[in-house]
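Hi R.,

Here's the chain you asked about this morning:
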Amino acid sequence: MKHIVTARADIVGSLLRPRELLESRERYAAGGLSTAEFKRTEDRAVEQAIGLQERAGLPIVTDGEMRRESFQSQMVEAVEGFGEHDMDAWLWGEWHGDEAVGEKRTERPQTLGVVGKLRRRRHLSIEEFVYARGRTDRTVKVTLPSPSMYANLWSPELSARAYPTLDLFLEDVAQILREEVEELARLGAEYIQLDAPHYPLLLDPKTRAFYERLGWDLDRWLSRGIELDNYVIGDHSDVTFSFHLCRGNQGSRWLVSGSYEPLAGRIFGGINAQRLMLEYDDKRSGDFGPLSHVPDDKVAVLGLVTTKTPRRETKEELEARLLEASRFVPLERLALSPQCGFATSIVGNALSVEDEEYKLRTIVETAEQVWG
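And the predicted structure, written out as tokens:
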């Protein structure tokens, strides 16, 4: 019998990193901290993250992605072949923000590009899962990146000797991620999420032009890309999968705006995930109309609570929006979450740990109020 996570209150993934962890990360990189000392600091940060989520009442918890530089960085840390990279590999682009944080533009590093055949040195997220599982009785969600998101790390100029085409590169990425899912399933993971922010980036002409220059047009992104995602997911009767789609999240900024409508028909029905984690915290996401594309066998987890600002949503506000969304998807196939992580990378968003906990508790209390 298929195992399905049915929680009405969910979480996307990352939480704000404690100052102690950020300082230890810098000291460790500079050689001023032993591996054992640094790992103990990571462990404490994970325990704090789990404790915060448990206090908020969440039935599903993550390790807060405390061991990651960015939500997708564990691939390049665990796998040989990616060549030169730093934080800018995850931060480049034209970032938009409100008056509090402003706009920011970061150029794509010229040296960014896979330079050798990929070879896994270690698993990506097994340490995260096993450690977190031992410290909570809640369902532990593990987040992994969608394979085609790593198109950003393939360069026609730098990568041709190792991978002449984008397809060949992404097939190897997908194989590594599929093996990761298989090992997580073997160890008893019940809930795995694929993060796929690159699909909504296709909504913007500028970012779509970048991705199309790599060799795939929009149609191929929505066919071959989803095919690779489904290869990673595989067939695991004891695991529930979610698929997270957002429009960029770094330092309280975003990359693009636009409705899910151009993507919804292909992605919502095409991905073999049971839960769709959808960003809907403000007008940038458009209206709820695209939810009409959600198949009857999937749950739409609506990210109505923003992680970008300290704004404190109310239960009444969230319930009203859920009822509005139920015009397109029945209430019994809806759930509630933040719109994204609170700290997609170590940069983090412009809000406090207290704001973070309040928002998660409000999600839980709203879910209890709406669904009982």
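The domain at 19-371 is CATH 3.20.20.210 (TIM Barrel).

Let me know if you need anything else.
M.
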